[in-house]
């Protein structure tokens, strides 16, 4: 790639507003139909989600959104139970919904969970960027992201679109018209977040050589912490870890050394106080806290006025841009990090 | 502590055979009564478990054991949904069991999940070392570990006893008399594992300064990978991370540099091939693989003939001894690592 030419990754980061807007629009009829049918089956008591990698972080967002809005527990599936131990993913006829999320729709273990659920007579839903994939074929219903081919190994626009489609699905399942309407603002908010990140990130370049980076987020933005950590790890090779504040304090903080950069996802919401307390504990150990927030003194500023449940779609942006920028400054191969592949087939 | 005097941690590691034996014996009547009552309520469709830190790793073992043996999905609870967002832990009257695991029984977020479940009319079970704790008071039923006070901040004997009690509970709930009987061998197997670890670990001391350590395990022993990583992290300050092979391959392997010690939990069982493939991928990146296995050429040898479902009680032992030994060689404070406390109250 010659100087000045943009990477696939940078282009895909910038495509996110359009991608998630298109994913939302495309799936209005499917979301309407699938949620109507699910409501007709009687009350759901649980949701099981199978996913890996970035899609597993989208599943984490779904866990919090479904838990907070619908009061339904979400189990993140352990696919090896099905593929290695031959156990059913859910009991026959359980009052459950099983969702699989996979950009490629081609990881056999994720497909296996959906097939097991379908065989048990439990409704299944695939969220994928490939409607022709084995995953889509195995599901009762499909929400197709339709964001076009993602060329960078590190997923960005498929993550944004996955979150948007999950949010639309949960809003409609809960018959929350206000939430459904609020999603219309998401593309513009993401656009603004990209502009702000491109301004703010270069000031943080001195940290780009860090071998260990911690990312803290809670509630809806626990997913953001995990996803930003995964981008940093994939793109820069840093050991980047996402934690919720309680998980960090129950042991792992012991490994945070002085000078460790700590990204703090402190966007407004009910968990903000808890996240700021964790930031103080990190500072007490000498960590260099980098705040992602909507206040003027934030290190990485977010657009203001974003509802907490919607904020993960926006708050991940500065983390993506930071990971891209640190990878560039460090001379890393951005689009195809060594040892990673776009479709990872695991069993 | 003068030279030659043992740490609380070392004493507690050595107490594990007696501790888990006593926990099993003490809980025979309670396990019998609780499982009889649960079976009388009709088929369970889901289990939700709330836990933090080491207890969360015990919960992970329960997730695999309940999934493999009973075919019931287990959701690891996100307590903030209850404490921060006010959502119910489970829908009213759900065909569920909610379990909380906590050595101290004093973390308000874990107690909150159990209280929420009880208010929803769903049966609750506490597994704790303190029958006088708020957690025990909040539960319909209690399995008391009864292993005596654990003085080391890093939990060992409460982990062993938690796994044993979970195994006894699941065996009885599934009316699996052979599994119940097999548990009688656990104390002797753990005793033998401690002897073997004390012989094998010193040869690995040159790795004790590693800043980053990876631990890989799958299926039942995914819990082992997570728990060994947590011990290494708490005791040595290394950034130690536990991964399942698929999770490692879906991105995080990008952060494994040449020379990184990688502990490979390769004890016999259905997932062994998958774990050995991950070890090869790690070696391809230059990682220094340390095999925990029951073969003669294992770096850390386990006793032979342990059933796969029972092996996490045994396979964690060399990891505990390794973490203790590397902490001693590195001059770390073993019993009370800086910044950690025995009871971590999170909300």
Oligomer: homodimer
Helix/strand class of chain A: alpha/beta
What is the count of β-strands of chain A? 10
What separation lies between the terminal Cα atoms of chain A? 35 Å
Fraction of helical residues of chain A: 40-55%
Order of helices and strands of chain A: HHHEHEHEHEHEHHHEHEHEHEEH
Q: Most extensive interface: pair and counts? A: A-B, 76 and 76 residues
Radius of gyration of chain A: 19 Å
Residue share in β-strands of chain A: 5-15%
Shape of chain A, please? Answer: globular
User: For the largest beta sheet of chain A, what order do the strands appear in spatially?
Assistant: 2-1-3-4-5
Number of helices of chain A: 14
Report on this model:
Two copies of one chain form a homodimer. The first copy, chain A, has about 350 residues and is α/β, with parallel strands linked by helices. The first copy, chain A, has a five-stranded parallel β-sheet with strand order 2-1-3-4-5, with helices on both faces. Chain A has a five-stranded parallel β-sheet with strand order 7-6-8-9-10, with helices on both faces. In chain A, helix 13 (about 270-285) links the parallel strand 8 and strand 9. The model of chain A has no long low-confidence stretch (mean pLDDT about 95). The first copy, chain A, has helices at about 10-15, 15-25, 30-40, 55-70, 80-85, 110-120, 135-140, 155-175, 175-180, 185-200, 220-235, 245-250, 270-285, 310-330; strands spanning about 45-50, 75, 95-100, 125-130, 140-145, 210-215, 240-245, 260-265, 290-295, 300. Chain A is globular. The longest helix of chain A is centred in the C-terminal third of the chain and has 19 residues, at about 310-330. Chain A has 14 helices and ten strands.
């Amino acid at each position: 790639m010659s100087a000045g030419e943009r990477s696939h990754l940078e282009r895909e980061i910038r495509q996110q507003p359009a991608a998630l807007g298109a994913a939302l629009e495309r799936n209005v009829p499917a979301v309407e139909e699938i949620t109507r049918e699910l409501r007709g089956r009687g009350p759901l008591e649980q949701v099981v989600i199978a996913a890996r990698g970035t899609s597993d972080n989208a599943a984490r967002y779904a866990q919090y959104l479904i838990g907070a809005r619908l009061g339904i527990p979400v189990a993140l599936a352990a696919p090896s139970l099905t593929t290695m131990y031959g156990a059913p993913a859910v009991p026959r006829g359980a009052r459950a919904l099983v969702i699989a999320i996979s950009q490629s729709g081609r990881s056999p273990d994720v497909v296996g969970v959906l097939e097991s659920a379908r065989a048990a007579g439990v409704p299944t839903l695939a969220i994928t960027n490939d409607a022709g994939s084995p995953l889509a074929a195995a599901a009762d219903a499909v929400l197709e992201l339709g964001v076009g081919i993602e060329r960078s190994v590190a997923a960005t626009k498929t993550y944004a679109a996955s979150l948007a489609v999950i949010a639309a699905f949960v809003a409609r399942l809960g018959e929350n018209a206000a939430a459904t309407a609020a999603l219309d603002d998401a593309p513009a908010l993401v656009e603004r977040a990209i502009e702000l990140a491109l301004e703010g990130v270069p000031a943080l370049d001195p940290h780009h050589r860090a071998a260990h980076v911690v990312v803290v987020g809670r509630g809806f933005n626990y997913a953001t912490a995990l996803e930003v950590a995964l981008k940093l790890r994939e793109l820069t090779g840093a050991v980047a870890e996402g934690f919720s504040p309680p998980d960090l304090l129950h042991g792992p903080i012991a490994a945070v050394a002085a000078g460790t950069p700590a990204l703090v996802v402190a966007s407004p919401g009910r968990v903000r106080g808890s996240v700021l307390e964790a930031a103080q504990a990190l500072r007490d150990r000498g960590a260099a806290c980098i705040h992602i927030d909507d206040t003027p003194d934030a290190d990485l500023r977010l657009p203001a006025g974003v509802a907490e449940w919607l904020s993960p779609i926006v708050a991940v942006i500065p983390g993506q841009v930071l990971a891209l920028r640190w990878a560039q400054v460090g001379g890393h191969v951005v689009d195809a990090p060594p040892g990673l592949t776009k479709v990872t087939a695991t069993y």
